[in-house]
Write a structure and sequence with these properties.
Elements (H helix, E strand, L loop, with lengths): L1 H9 L33 H13 L4 E4 L2 E5 L10 H7 L11 H15 L3 E6 L6 H15 L4 H21 E2 L7 E2 L2 E8 L5 E9 L17 H9 L2 H7 L23 H15 L3 H18 L3 E5 L5 E5 L3 H10 L3 H9 E6 L2 E6 L2 H31 L8 E7 L11 H32 L12 H8 L5 H10 L6 H11 L6 E3 L17 E6 L2 E6 L3 H6 L4 H8 L4 H6 L16 H17 L2 E8 L12 H10 L2 H9 L4 E4 H8 L14 H12 L6 E3 L3 E4 L2 H139 L7 H23 L20 H20 L4 H17 L6 H5 L17 H6 L6 E8 L6 E8 L3 E6 L5 E6 L3 E6 L6 E6 L11 E4 L3 H14 L7 E4 L2 E6 L2 E10 L8 E6 L2 E7 L3
Parallel strand pairs: 2-16, 3-12, 3-16, 24-27, 29-31
Antiparallel strand pairs: 1-2, 4-5, 6-7, 6-12, 8-9, 10-11, 13-14, 14-15, 17-19, 18-19, 20-21, 20-26, 21-22, 22-23, 24-25, 25-26, 28-29, 30-31
């Protein structure tokens, strides 16, 4: 540890040691004294001053050996973070500064590693922070134990049980805004790995009197205010409640609202916690109904009424609250009303019914309210135990956490304070016994001689209270069970008679003469000298509170309720199980439960947390010395310190002791190679510590006096300073040398880089000069070569030019010669031709003189015709019927022949073209021809359809598996299958439909499902109406009176309008039994929709949706179709 502390000094210089983990000890950087056992000198004043000093520096935890003293800071401190949890995890108890996490970790590791059951006892008065301490312990254990889905669920249920119990068991008091008004002991069960399996909760003495009455400045239990503030309006309506606190007698109004407590938010937290713990929704509702019933019960008021026999009885003033309460619990109103007015007493076989006066009725009402709430709280604890109990039946390790009320001394102390202080006496007794036993076992284990320690044994006080024959509780039970008149005065008289000689009992009427002159004792009080001081108890109410009597009539009335939970809470009300035996008293039950708790605690290894409240103002940074002194006394903290210091004040294992103090001896510094005990012996001998000041155990060294420890700490502090100085000197020398070497290395690197830079610059200059010289030389050479090449090129070009000119001259000369020769030859030919003609004419003139002209004409015509036909043969056009080319006529006199030949050739060409057609193709062209007859020059859409072939089945309905069902539904052959839009007359919008045309009918089917929507026989179609424009709209006009005309005509739109109308017309023309279909082409026509006729009007314009046709409903009698203007 010393080495690490020294490294922390070096860490200030920024060296790598700063990254090392810095371990601290209980003795390092102490504010005051972290362990009261080491306090020197030891007195009550020095004890309080040490607590004050640590409290002022936010050190709220202090040790007394293994006991943790916790001061309530009344504010949040940053000492419970996840980093703190990791810091204290798996660390020695004294290794770090005092903290509640250290105790929780020590207990958890002892349970997990040593298989020792643990218990953590948290004590202190109200407002000292016991509940928060128990939460911190549980949260730490939950954080350090294992992980996993099931484990996390168990941890969450254990942690979420706290908000539920706090809501029903905590209340605002003058000392604490969240005071636990019950004692809680939770056993958390773990498996062999240390993972939580479940838990069991035990509750002790709920302050149920708070339900019906609260002291001034205090509140009832939290749940009442949370329910009224946080529940929804619907929930309050079901529970028949109002948000106004003033409407309920059981709720105090002066402290209904508490600063820092958000009842509405806390109610939602409680509901969520109940869900996590495992409450069903109907169970939560039942619990809220019982809480509402308690509030309603407090509003029931009684009025006196005299009977004819002179006896007084009571009657309920306003029965509205009684009625609502009975409706909530499912009780007959008359049954509960009678239970509040009469009391039945059974003795053997006799029953006596007596009336209740107003005071007795109010007592019965409050007793029922207290019992109802108390039993509900016990049921909640049982229900939580069912959810959080361990599921496996193997042996479990157990850690118990006891959060119980501390010693209470008020101005007016009654039965509750007596019971609470009795419990604290038992806890103090077991604390002293277990502490001494732990000390003795450690001494024996270490081989140290044990000497008996004198201490105050409070067994005599416990015996005064719990003795079976002469104890105060026994005499109180005896008085409650005694026949005759029993009052608090008779009980006090009995105490004065039996306990008069007891040295810890005082009373004004005691027979002990030394108290006769003590006038500070009232007549109806007695005083007990507890270990924490004298407490004055008022005997008034002891008998009634001990009896805790609930009339049997009320129990039976509750059992008759239809509410499932009420029957479980009042099993004694079952008429079939009437028990005339008197129920056990409250004192007897509490004594038995305390005895069970003590036996349970004695089987476990104890760990103590003593909680102290620094002031009564619930404010931070205020330390009230008188209040703290009072708590230190009644918690017995000084007694605890004296017990721990009676033998050896400090003990430590050899390894950490040697590690901490080895620098004090040259033989052990810096490393000891032998066993740790021998190193400690060498160390103590070298320091010349007197032998009587310490003893060697088997694994620890025991130091008797704190002065010896402080001597070692002072020597260690001085040595640390010397070592720190040495380390700083070495570190500074090393740092300076390192800096010098770094500078030297840097200078070498800088010089090397500079020389490199200088040489690079010099090289760049030389390289640049060389490049310039080279560039000039290369330029001169290039220019010289260029001049030579240019000269050579000019020479070659000159030769080429001269040659070209010469060859041109030669060519032109030859051309002129050839032209001249050709002219001469042509002239010779012409002259020869003229000469031959003259010669022939002279020779044959004698033969053709009479009809020579006609013959020459005929010959000429014959030659012309021959030449015409031979020319026509070579210029004949193609065989395509649409080819309109034809050779020009050469002579005008051939015009008629030329036209006739053209007509004959076209007819012959068409015949040859038709001979190539199949029957199907002929039918298509026949339909095209028919379409031309119907629409040519009548419908603007027709020209664009001429080039489109008529396919007929556009959907391939026979091949497509999607339309298999539709194909099977149509018997005839489908001539045309297409998708059309059926126009809705209501809004002009289209719906996609499948349009099928057969030889006998028109079928419309749904496009998605293929279901047939309409089937119209062709004889029922009277006509078809279309517009003259380029749209695809057409109307199927049905014959009036036909079966198909019940729903009216069909207005459809299709991209293949020309083909659909043509096929409909052709089918009507060929069928023998069908009249030819009438085609009406007009921009305005009537369509019959059911009983109404609607005009469909087509106009040209710019539609909204681009270039598409749009249909819009104008009124009930007009549909307007807007068609884009064609350019």
């Amino acid at each position: 540890m010393c080495d690490v502390s020294l490294f922390s000094v070096c860490a200030q210089g920024g060296t790598p040691a700063a990254k090392m983990e810095v371990k601290t000890s209980l003795l390092d950087n102490m504010i005051g004294v972290g362990d009261m056992v080491l306090l020197e000198p030891l007195s009550e004043d020095s004890f309080l001053e040490n607590l004050r000093k640590r409290f002022d520096h936010n050190e709220i935890y202090t040790y007394i050996g293994s006991v943790v003293i916790s001061m309530n800071p009344y504010r949040s401190l940053p000492i419970y973070t996840p980093e703190k949890v990791e810091e204290y995890r798996n660390r020695n108890f004294y290794e770090l500064s005092p903290h509640i996490y250290a105790l929780a970790d020590e207990a958890y590791r002892s349970l997990r590693d040593q298989d020792k059951d643990q218990c953590i006892l948290i004590t202190g008065e109200s407002g000292a922070g016991k509940t928060e301490a128990s939460k911190l312990v549980m949260s730490y254990v939950a954080a350090v134990c294992g992980k996993g889905q099931e484990v996390n669920k168990v941890k969450e249920q254990l942690l979420q049980s706290n908000p539920v119990l706090e809501a029903f068991g905590n209340a605002k008091t003058v000392r604490n805004d969240n005071s636990s008004r019950f004692g809680k002991y939770m056993d958390i069960e773990f498996d062999f790995k240390g993972d939580p399996l479940g838990g069991v909760i035990s509750n002790y003495l709920l302050e149920k009197s708070r339900v019906v009455k609260q002291p001034r400045g205090e509140r009832n239990f939290h749940i009442f205010y949370q329910l009224l503030s946080g529940a929804s309006d619907d929930t309050l309506k079901k529970l028949k409640l109002h948000r106004d606190f003033s409407k309920y007698n059981y709720l105090s109004l002066d402290s209904a609202v508490v600063n820092g407590l958000d009842d509405a938010t806390n109610f939602r937290t409680v509901r969520n916690a109940m869900q996590i713990v495992g409450f069903m929704e109907d169970e939560v509702q039942s619990v809220l109904e019982l809480v509402a019933a308690v509030l309603k019960l407090g509003n029931i008021e009684f009025k006196p009424e005299s009977r004819c026999n002179g006896t007084d009885e009571s009657r309920i003033k306003d029965k509205n609250d009684l009625k609502e309460m009975c409706e909530l619990l499912g009780i007959e109103q008359s049954v509960l009303e009678r239970a509040f007015s009469y009391r039945t007493v059974e003795a053997k076989l006799e029953k006596v019914s007596t009336t209740l006066n107003v005071a007795q009725a109010y007592y019965a009402r409050d007793a029922l309210a207290k019992n109802l709430y108390s039993r509900l709280f016990s049921w909640l604890v049982t229900r939580i135990n069912e959810s959080i109990k361990a599921q496996t039946k193997t042996r479990h390790k157990v850690m118990g956490v006891l959060d119980i009320y501390g010693f209470e001394i008020f101005e007016d102390n009654s039965f509750e304070q007596f019971i609470i202080n009795y419990c604290n006496e038992k806890l103090q007794q077991i604390f002293i016994e277990l502490t001494l036993r732990e000390e003795q076992e450690e001494y024996i284990r270490e081989g140290i001689e044990w000497t008996n320690i004198e201490y105050f044994n409070n067994a005599i006080i416990c015996d005064l209270i719990e003795n079976h024959q002469n104890g105060i509780l026994a005499m109180l039970d005896e008085e409650c069970l005694r026949p005759g008149t029993v009052t608090d005065e008779t009980f006090l008289d009995k105490l004065n008679t039996v306990c008069a000689e007891h040295q810890h009992f005082e009373s004004r009427l005691s027979k002990n003469s030394k108290f006769l002159t003590d006038h500070s004792l009232p007549h109806n009080c007695f005083r007990i000298q507890h270990y924490a001081g004298k407490v004055l108890y008022r005997a008034e109410g002891f008998v009634d509170k001990n009896n805790d009597l609930l009339y049997r009539d009320l129990s039976q009335a509750m059992y008759k309720a239809n509410h499932s939970l009420i029957k479980q809470l009042f099993p004694e009300g079952n008429p079939a199980k009437v028990n005339l035996k008197r129920p056990p008293t409250a004192g007897f039950q509490f004594k038995a439960s305390v005895g069970t708790l003590m036996k349970n605690l004695q089987t476990k290894n104890p760990n103590y947390i003593r909680c102290i409240k620094p002031n009564d103002k619930k404010a931070s940074h205020i330390f009230t010395e008188s209040l703290v002194r009072h708590q230190v006394r009644y918690l017995g903290l000084m007694e605890n310190v004296r017990v721990r210091r009676a033998g050896y004040a400090f003990r430590q294992a050899y390894e950490p002791c040697l590690e901490r103090y080895k620098m004090l001896c040259k033989r052990t510094w810096p490393h000891w190679r032998g066993p740790a005990r021998e190193g400690v012996e060498v160390l103590m001998a070298d320091l010349q510590v007197p032998a009587e000041e310490f003893s060697y155990g088997r694994s620890k060294i025991f130091i008797r006096n704190p002065r010896t420890l402080f001597f070692l700490e002072e020597r260690r502090r001085q040595c640390l300073q010397d070592l720190a100085t040495l380390i700083q000197k070495i570190y500074r020398g090393w740092k300076c040398r390192s800096q010098f070497l770094l500078l030297k290395k840097s200078q070498i690197v800088v010089a090397a880089w500079y020389r490199r830079y200088a040489q690079q610059k010099k090289y760049q200059k030389i390289k640049s000069a060389t490049t310039v010289v080279q560039s000039y030389t290369r330029g001169w050479q290039a220019r010289k070569l260029l001049r030579e090449l240019k000269y050579q090129k000019r020479c070659e070009e000159a030769v080429t030019t001269i040659s070209a000119y010469w060859h041109g001259t030669q060519a032109r000369r030859e051309l002129r010669r050839l032209k001249e020769e050709a002219r001469r030859k042509h002239a010779v030919a012409v002259i020869w031709a003229y000469w031959q003609g003259l010669k022939v004419r002279r020779e044959y003139r004698k033969f053709f003189r009479a009809n020579a002209g006609k013959k020459i004409y005929d010959f000429t015509i014959q030659r012309i015709m021959q030449k015409y036909f031979l020319g026509l043969k070579s210029t004949m056009p193609s065989m395509s019927p649409i080819d309109k080319n034809w050779p020009n006529r050469p002579y005008q006199f051939l015009d008629g022949v030329h036209k006739e030949l053209r007509r004959i050739f076209h007819l012959w060409r068409c015949k040859k073209y038709r001979s190539q057609f199949t029957e199907e193709k002929k039918a298509v062209y026949q339909e095209k021809l028919e379409a031309s007859k119907i629409f040519k020059d009548k419908k603007a859409l027709y020209p664009s359809s001429v080039s489109q072939p008529f396919k007929g089945d556009y959907l391939e309905i026979s091949k497509n598996p999607k339309y298999q069902k539709l194909n099977s539904a149509v018997v005839e052959k489908v001539l045309l299958a297409d998708v059309v839009n059926k126009i809705n007359r209501a809004n002009g919008k289209g719906t996609a439909r499948i349009f099928l045309l057969t030889k006998k009918s028109v079928v419309l089917a749904d496009q998605k499902t293929g279901q047939v929507k309409a089937s119209v026989p062709l004889p029922d179609v009277a006509s078809v109406s279309v517009s003259t424009q380029s749209d695809g709209f057409f109307a199927l006009r049905l014959k009036e009176g036909s079966a198909s005309a019940t729903k009216g005509d069909f207005l459809l739109s299709s991209e293949h309008l020309i083909e659909i109308i043509t096929k409909l017309h052709s089918i009507g023309a060929t069928a023998a039994d069908t009249k030819q279909l009438n085609i009406d082409i007009s921009d305005e026509f009537l369509v019959q929709f059911k009983q109404d006729k609607v005009c469909v009007k087509f106009i040209q314009g710019a539609p909204k949706n681009g270039n598409s046709v749009s249909c819009k409903r104008k009124n009930n009698r007009l549909l307007e179709v807007s068609v884009p203007t064609t350019v």
